Amino acid sequence: MLSIRNLSKTYRGRQALQNLSLDILPGEVYGLLGPNGAGKTTTINLICGLLQADEGQVLVNNQVAGSATKPWIGVMPQENLLYRSLTCEENLQFFAKIYGLPRRRRSLRIQDCLAAVSLSDRAHTPVENLSGGMQRRLSLAVAIVHSPKLLILDEPTTGLDIEARHEVWNLIRLLSREQGMTILLTTHLLDEAERLCQRIGIIKQGQLLTEGTLPDLRQRIPACEIMTVETKEPEAAIARAQELGFTPRRYGSELAFWVPDELELRDLLARFDGVPLDAISRSPVKLEHIYLEVTQGTIQTEEAIEVE
Ligand SMILES: Nc1ncnc2c1ncn2[C@@H]1O[C@H](COP(=O)(O)OP(=O)(O)OP(=O)(O)O)[C@@H](O)[C@H]1O
Q1: Are 256 and 226 in contact (CB under 8 A)?
Q2: Are 55 and 115 found together in one domain?
Q3: Is 291 domain-assigned?
Q4: What is the pTM of this model?
Q5: Using N-to-C axis directions, what is the helix angle for 103-116 and 132-144, rounded to 10°?
Q6: Is residue 35 classed as helix, strand or coil in its secondary structure?
Q7: 191 and 238 share a domain?
Q8: Per the database record, which ranges form the ABC transporter domain (predicted)?
Q9: Atom 6, ligand 1: which residue's CA is nearest?
């Protein structure tokens, strides 16, 4: 559905994308992750034809991205682009008209979209009187009003409370499962990507560092579990862990270890006997750990392995 080939983009001498290639299959939810400034929004703007690439190509549904592919793409941008004094229905009318939806189909489609995002009862409410979560849902309705083949969601739930976040997640799942929509999603919320995306790509400095399904990515870390400890004597904990064959790691301010086998907490504690631990917890390898390893360059990505 989307094929990005060797895409490069420079802004006044600053390289934003370097030879980026990736493919998104029909019906797939693909998560594009990366730190601030990695090139995610630039990629989206190139897909939508809002920017011109220096090199490379974007194909949408096998056609070079341009005016012909625009009607196939729906975008929910990071900031809601809604008319605050207009009602939900008026906003949808406006965007449906811009997308060239025939007048006779507009009304029904708008009612369907309002129902899809659970805003039918707010059809006549001005945007400025909606909660942040409702505005986000309306943004999603605007993005799908013309029934796009490819839906791009740029940080869809940033700034929402947990309840509103769940509502948007449910909508995304529905669009994917029931309407088979192909979705490209960017987010800094790794649990969001973990919940929604079938495949994940991690970019940094405009380059794709790695991509795959979550189980594929988990294989990058040769650990069964991640153990996090709080201790006043980190050096002693690290020395003991190394004796045990556990790989020490710093995840932000946390001291963690890669534990290669599944161990009972009792066994783990016994192995650290004599080391003063204030707290200890275990978790399976999460996307957060893989992301930190990949973006900090502490584990090899496919490209690095190929070069060797
Ligand atoms: N209009 C512009 N003019 C100059 N530089 C720009 C422009 N837009 C983006 N950049 C630069 O290009 C790089 C990629 O930016 P981009 O906005 O694509 O990153 P991002 O991954 O979307 O970041 P974020 O997660 O913060 O939204 C950054 O170094 C940024 O400063």
Answers
A1: yes
A2: yes
A3: no
A4: 0.88
A5: 140
A6: coil
A7: no
A8: 2-230
A9: 11
Backbone phi and psi for residue 65, each to the nearest 5 degrees, phi listed first: -60, 135
For residues 255 and 129, membership in a common domain is answered with no
With a 6 Å cutoff on the Cβ, whether 124 touches ligand 1 is: no
Residue 41 CB less than 6 A away from ligand 1: yes
- Is the CB–ligand 1 distance for residue 13 below 6 Å? no
CA–centroid distance, residue 205 to ligand 1 (Å): 10
Sheet containing 63-64: order of strands: 14-24, 2-11, 55-60, 63-64
Residues 247 and 126 placed together within one structural domain of the fold? no
- CA 16 / ligand 1 centre spacing (Å): 7
Number of domains forming the structure of the chain: 2
pLDDT tens digits in sequence order for the chain, 308 residues long:
899 999 999 999 899 999 999 999 999 999 999 999 999 999 999 998 888 899 999 999 999 888 888 889 999 998 889 999 999 999 999 999 999 898 888 999 999 999 988 899 999 999 999 998 899 999 999 999 999 999 999 999 887 888 888 988 998 998 898 888 999 999 999 999 999 999 999 999 999 999 999 999 988 888 888 989 898 888 999 999 999 889 888 887 889 999 888 888 888 888 888 888 888 888 888 999 899 989 987 776 654 434 33
DSSP letter for 246, please.
Answer: P
- Look up the domain containing 112 and give its range: 2-213
Give yes or no for residue 75 CB within 6 A of ligand 1. Answer: no
Establish whether residue 77 lines the binding site of ligand 1, counting it when its CB lies within 6 angstroms of any ligand atom.
no
d(CA 120, CA 111): 7
Report d(CA 76, CA 135) in Å as an integer.
Answer: 11
Gap from CA of 92 to ligand 1 centroid (Å)? 29
Domain match, 174 and 249 both: no
3-state class of 64 per DSSP? strand
* Nearest alpha carbon, ligand 1 atom 16: 39
Question: Would 297 be classed as within a structural domain?
Answer: no
Do both 71 and 127 map to the same domain? Answer: yes
- 128 occurs within a structural domain: yes
Same-domain check for residues 10 and 76? yes
Q: Does any domain span residue 295?
A: no
